[in-house]
């Protein structure tokens, strides 16, 4: 029964494979604890459903759900997982309506599992996967609406779950805009979009979004937003604003790379404000920088400053006043 259950759930009997698959570790472990009489009733049904794929008759689903209702919540997670497989198979066969209906049934089964075991980590994983699936198949609005009761920040979580699968930065930018349409004004999403826009030098749109993200969160929110805002000010030829934004970051708990970037950006701001002593001091060893000759630091900053201003369309501004 237990080997058949693993096969029916799409997980190899080898425990190592099951762990790698990240589909059955908790789910199958809970099912294995159920009494043999329950397994004897359900496993043959699940095996038949696996063989029939999404063509399984409705009465099979009704029978499985009838068995699951008084049983462990893991059974409802199993029903939800099978519904998700049903949706995937339907989409592969280009049966869009059947796939969207299967997504709805899967989310309904997940709701039953949630009611019985709210802290299920496995169900958390499935819910994000369904958001991704629904997004790709044109049913994202309904999937997101069904998830909001569980995740107040569901749009952001869906983005983080999905961004690793995006092939290009342009797709990531489009995804951020789409999720902001569902959750407008979210500071974290606004900040993430602002970072992407800075990378594309679309400063007129990036700066207001990053300013909003920094102002809306306590203590400025994610330090990455302030860091990118400081560099956006540099690219926009606003060194005083860059200095005011980047200077407080030296007191923040940044990772080493972020701290180095903040120090470099602040040095560039001082350079363009004409304070060369402050610029070189930021990169000295006692300030946490690399110990080099001050003249070499000044030359390096001048070159980096030239690059910054050249990207903003004014290369002469980097050497003005030297």
Automatic annotation (TrEMBL):
InterPro entries: TPR-like_helical_dom_sf. The chain crosses the membrane at residues 294-312. The keyword Cell membrane does not apply. It comes from the Bacteria. Pfam families: TPR_19 (PF14559). This is Tetratricopeptide repeat protein. The keyword Transmembrane helix applies. Keywords: Membrane, Transmembrane, Transmembrane helix. It comes from Thermorudis sp.
């Amino acid at each position: 029964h237990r080997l058949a259950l693993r096969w029916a759930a799409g997980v190899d009997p080898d425990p190592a494979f099951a762990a790698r698959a990240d589909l059955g570790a908790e789910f199958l472990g809970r099912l294995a604890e159920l009494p043999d009489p329950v397994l004897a009733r359900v496993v043959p049904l699940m095996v038949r459903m696996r063989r029939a794929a999404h063509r399984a008759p409705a009465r099979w689903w009704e029978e499985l759900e009838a068995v699951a209702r008084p049983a462990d919540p893991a059974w409802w997670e199993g029903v939800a997982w099978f519904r998700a497989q049903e949706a995937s198979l339907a989409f592969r066969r280009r049966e869009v309506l059947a796939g969207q209906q299967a997504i709805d049934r899967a989310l309904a089964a997940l709701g039953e599992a949630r009611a019985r075991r709210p802290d299920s980590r496995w169900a958390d994983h499935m819910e994000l996967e369904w958001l991704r699936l629904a997004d790709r198949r044109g049913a994202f609005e309904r999937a997101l609406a069904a998830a909001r009761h569980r995740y107040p920040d569901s749009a952001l979580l869906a983005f983080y779950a999905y961004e690793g699968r995006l092939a290009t930065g342009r797709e990531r930018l489009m995804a951020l805009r789409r999720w902001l349409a569902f959750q407008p004004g979210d500071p974290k999403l606004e900040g993430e979009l602002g970072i992407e826009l800075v990378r594309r030098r679309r400063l007129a749109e990036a700066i207001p979004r990053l300013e909003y993200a920094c102002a809306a969160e306590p203590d400025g929110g994610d330090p990455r937003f302030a860091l990118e805002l400081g560099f956006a000010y540099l690219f926009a030829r606003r060194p005083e604003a860059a200095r005011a934004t980047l200077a407080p970051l030296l007191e923040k708990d940044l990772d080493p790379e972020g701290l180095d970037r903040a120090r470099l950006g602040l040095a560039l701001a001082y350079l363009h404000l004409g304070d060369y002593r402050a610029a070189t001091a930021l990169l000295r060893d006692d300030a946490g920088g690399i110990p080099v000759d001050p003249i070499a630091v000044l030359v390096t900053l001048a070159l980096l400053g030239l690059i910054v201003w050249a990207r903003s369309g004014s290369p002469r501004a980097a050497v003005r006043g030297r």
